[in-house]
Amino acid sequence: MKRTGRGFWRLMMALALALSLGMDAAMAEYADVVLNSQAEAQGVRPVIYPHWFHRIRFRCKVCHNELGFQMKVGANNIDMNKILDGKFCGMCHNGDVAWGTEFCDRCHSGLPGLKTGIRGGSKSTGPGEY
C-alpha cells in the first residue's frame, strides 16, 4: 500500500481551511486562468490554473512581483523549459514546495480547444467549459 505524503495532507488541510473561510467568495473574485497559447501546439491539454486557490495561500506580490507573472492575459511567455529551470510555476512546483512536474495532468487538465483567458468570477474573459 502506498504511503500518502505530507504534501497530500497539506493540500487537504488547505482545502478544509478554504472551505471554512468562504472559498466561494475567493473563487468568485479570482476565478481560474486558462493557459493555452503553447500547450496544444506542444501536444498537451490546456493548463487550468486555479488562481483562487493560490490566492488563498499567497499575497498577490508573491507571484506577480517576486516570480514575474504579469497581470495581463496572455502576457506571460510560460513554457515547460522555463518551469523546469525553476521559473514561473517551477519556483514552487519543484517537488519540495508543491508537486513536481511529473504530474502533468494536474495542471494540463483543460478540454482541447479551450482559449487562453480567465474563466469564472467577476473578471471572466469569456464562457467555456473546462
Structure description:
The chain has about 130 residues and is mainly alpha-helical. The chain has one domain (about 5-120): Alpha-Beta Complex (Cytochrome C3), CATH 3.90.10. It is built from six helices and three strands. It has a three-stranded antiparallel sheet, with no helix packed on it. The longest helix has 15 residues, at about 5-20. The chain is globular. Mean pLDDT is about 80; it is low at about 20-30.
Main features:
three-stranded antiparallel β-sheet, 130 residues, mainly alpha
Summarize the SSE layout with pairings.
Elements: H1 6-20, H2 23-30, E1 32-35, E2 47-49, H3 51-57, H4 60-66, H5 80-84, H6 104-107, E3 117-119
Helix pairs in contact: 2-3
Uncertain spans, ≥5 residues at pLDDT below 50? 22-28
CATH architecture: Alpha-Beta Complex
Text of the CATH class: Alpha Beta
Share of helix, binned? 25-40%
Mean pLDDT over the residues: 82
Strand order of the largest sheet: 2-1-3
> Radius of gyration in whole Å, from Cα?
15 Å
According to CATH, the fold-level topology is: Cytochrome C3
Through-space gap between termini: 33 Å
Structural class computed from helices and strand pairing: mainly alpha
Strand content: 5-15%
- How many domains is the backbone divided into? 1
- What spatial form do the alpha-carbon principal axes imply? globular
Count of beta strands: 3
Task: Say which CATH homologous superfamily is assigned.
Answer: Cytochrome C3
Helical stretch tally:
6
